[in-house]
Amino acid sequence: MIRRAAACAWVTNPGAIYTQRQIEFCAVAVPMLTAASLFPTADKCRQQQEKPPVLTKLHVLKPHPLPRRRPIVGIAALVLIAASATAALAQSTKEHTMSLASIAHETAFSVHDHLPAGYGETARRPVVVDGEAAELVRYERMDGRNAGIGGEHFSTVIAANGRLKGFARIDLDLVGADLPSRDEAQAIALAFLQKQAPDLLPGMELSWIDPHKEPLRVVRNGKTENLTLTGMKVKIRNTVDGRWFWVIVGADRKVMVFERDIHWITFPGHRGTEKWLHDAWLVEKGHAPRGS
């Protein structure tokens, strides 16, 4: 009876879920059920449709909130990126500074390579070149010939970091001799720059090559004479920083004057950088007495 009741229950409640074994059992246990008992009549279907629906409580699934990306995580990432960039920049700056220091050391100016024979140091003083600390050193003939401001001298200006800013060799022996050609002067100037100022080469732009005059005061037979010392000037612009530099080659085919990092004021057209190597300027600015 229990099995038969179960079979009937399956027939009357076809929506229930049963196992395959229960279904097979019902198929055997209820062989005499009629089609009418298996399929509800139209009235029965109508009655079932008219029953009010049974409302059940709906369980609305709330969406699982996404984890918040805390701003601090993004900030930390930015800090790490900035720190890495700063470290890389610092390393690059350090390497660049070391490179410049290495160049300055390798191209340290040797006075004795250009100092004429018989000259010795007579004065040394700190100066400022375009706001940069430097030192002016003056050498004159040891025999006293044409000594003092305006006379024969060899002077250098060297920056505090050891870089040669310029030198001038004003010597009577260079007066009156034939000058080198423009091509010869250019070749001599280039060779000098490669040794003493290689950092200027990448941005160099030749402006012109022409004779250049420098004044020289000499004493002959007890009389003072004003002579003109002439050299072949190779004037060049540094396209990297817009400043100027030049090499003046003397009649002896050696560098007579070298100056670099010259700031030029276009209007009204004059030099802005101090002229520590030029005696006339020293007198004009009150840095030296007139020729003695």
User: Which class best fits the helix and strand makeup?
Assistant: alpha+beta
Strand count = 10
The end-to-end distance, rounded to whole angstroms, is 148 Å
Let me know the average pLDDT.
78
Give the low-confidence spans. Answer: 1-12, 25-42, 52-61, 96-106
Features:
eight-stranded antiparallel sheet; 10 strands; alpha+beta; globular; disordered N terminus; 292 residues; two-stranded antiparallel sheet; 2 domains
Can you walk through the features of this model?
By secondary structure, the protein is of the alpha+beta class. The chain folds into 2 domains: 2-40, no CATH class; 113-284, no CATH class. It has helices spanning 2-12, 20-29, 35-38, 42-50, 71-106, 182-196, 279-284; strands at 119-129, 132-141, 153-159, 164-170, 204-220, 223-238, 244-249, 255-262, 264-265, 270-271. The strands form 2 sheets. An 8-stranded antiparallel β-sheet has the order 1-2-3-4-8-7-6-5. A hairpin with a 4-residue loop joins β9 (264-265) and β10 (270-271). α1 (2-12) crosses α2 (20-29). The protein is globular.
Helix-strand blueprint:
Layout: H1 2-12, H2 20-29, H3 35-38, H4 42-50, H5 71-106, E1 119-129, E2 132-141, E3 153-159, E4 164-170, H6 182-196, E5 204-220, E6 223-238, E7 244-249, E8 255-262, E9 264-265, E10 270-271, H7 279-284
Helix pairs in contact: 1-2
